[in-house]
Amino acid sequence: MPDSYAQSPDGTLFIANGVNEPLVWDSLGAVEPAGMLAPSSALTLAGSGTGTITGAYLAYTRYLDSHGNVSNFSDVSTTVTLTAVGLITYSSVPVPVQTKVTRRQILRNTAGQTAVFYVDVDTTDLTTTSFTSTRLDSELASQEAQSLFDTEGGLLANTHNPPPSTKSVLAHHLDRMFLACEIEYREGSVSTTLGSLTVSGVGTQWPSTFEGRFLWVDGAPESYEIDSVNEVTQTLTLLSAYAGPTNPYARYAIRPAPGERRLIYYSNAGEPQSWPPTQVLSLQDDGDELTGLMPKGSFLYMLERRHIYRFTFQSDPGEDGYVFLSASRGCVNNRCWVVVDEDAYMLDEAGIYKFSGGQDAESVSAPIQDLFEPETSSSHPYRINWTSRSYFHANYHPGQEVIRWFVALSGSGFPRHALCLDLTQSRWWIEEYQIPIASSVQGRLGGQPRVFLGGPAGQVLLHGEGSLDGAALGHTLRGTATSATLLTLSDTLASFHSTQVGCPLWIVSGRGAGQARIIASVTATKLTLARPWLILPDTTSVYQVGGISWRFRTRWFRYRDDDKEQARRLELTFEPCVQPSQVEAKLYQDRDDVAVLQGSTGELNGWTSVQGAPELVGDLTRVIGYLQRRLDGFKDLYADGPRFLQVELSGVANQEPVRLYELVIDGVK
Description:
By secondary structure, this protein is mostly beta strands. Helix content is 1%, strand content 43%. The strands form twelve sheets. The protein has a seven-stranded antiparallel β-sheet with strand order 19-14-15-18-17-16-20, with no helix packed on it. The chain has a seven-stranded antiparallel β-sheet with strand order 38-44-41-42-43-40-39, with no helix packed on it.
């Protein structure tokens, strides 16, 4: 699944990958640790020849990137006292391991002081380990000085520490970067042995940077600090013997030290690459869990699962920063809040709400609140699977003025559904996707704001492009099956194409109608599926490649109370489709989850029914754009009989969008 990310003021994209440490995309597209690592060792300094260079000298090495950002100094060299030499040789000069490094500098002091250093060697040579210099002290002092301390003794050099590797959420606010929320690693499982110092990974990818973090194992009486990591064998060595039960496949988590849980780090002003270890805020412990950071207006909001804190400062967060409790609502993770104009829309375990920054939080999810209720509270078939909340995310489509929260519903471990809110009409609907949608981001294409979605195996999808799900035009998209097996569907008249791999395949009518499968491989006349059919299609089965399913269900209506014959009728107006397309209508009575079965077979006014089946099938290619169906109209007021009616419309789009204009139900209140 995708990583959390945020963007710095200079356009650098930082990523917290949850495995190693915060990462950054460099100009070549490679992923590296964010910030620059300091040179790993000290160089050596020596003098030779005859000249006037005399005194006690020290030297440092540092790296620079293409933007001129500098790393911390290396360790200082050993002091060398020179007498009347003409050449200084620097050897064992560290070589950078990060591709973002474009230059190296060697800095040397002038004789008689060690508080100020000057650049003696500035080179783009990143591989040579030996350099020479003939510069006199007077030449060095003519350059810009690099002071180690200010007038009050404060440290000026070595403030360019990389960001801490234990945090997953990055935010930019008032010219500084802020890091919060501990990284937790849970991939795979562990094999544990009572009394052993060694724990083995099963399906893990542990890096050496996990050294010093803590191992938590389900069923163990305590946590264990990690002494070392063997990346090759995927084993951990603990500082104390494991006291939990022996288990070859135990669930576990690797987390930072407990003291890191409530800490929020921040960078130097205007230097997103520089994170002095002393620049840290500690949020009071309220028993809740930090989940994100949200910059909005002049405040930085610190998000928890059940609380929101407002943070403000003038010049230095550590000196004049203040934290206030802002709301008793929260956010499930840092990807589930969206700011539109002056308001933030957020998802927590109580629902979705609008947050303007004050004490009040306005709930907006009443029409879909059933999704947030406990499993035992009602008969609704879907619930949000909160165990997968780390994968949830949201985006705002400005062209549609719609916010989508991608969540996992009951039975799914990854987000396959989106809870959609139309801000202009205050209307809700739920979208279902054939593949997990791992991430989403707002971008621009052709100068217009668009939403891009991340799918499995590195797929990048454009949301709302046409009426087909990933299927390109120019190849067979709809037809009737000539044969099928458990994992295939064949059409001897078709011309399928390899670009249809990964697209959904729907059976839209005939045997097996309503089934959807993902296409795994393609030949000209046969589609192979990722999983088998439940009902095997036959020669009556009409299929649709790349179809997008849709469904609309009304609220419950009450029949008119009258003992006379009532005009009861179902009417639907729509935009006629050019390509074959249809709508199915189902009628439900008296809050029953089972649709009413049709009593006759035939076609009337565009609707077709089969006796004993629940569907009314409407032809959306009717040029009149109109369908109607007469319903049973007799009702005895004083006898027990149907009193409530609900209508459901559904279908699968073909090569053009389905536009329904009006649904009329006569005979109800």
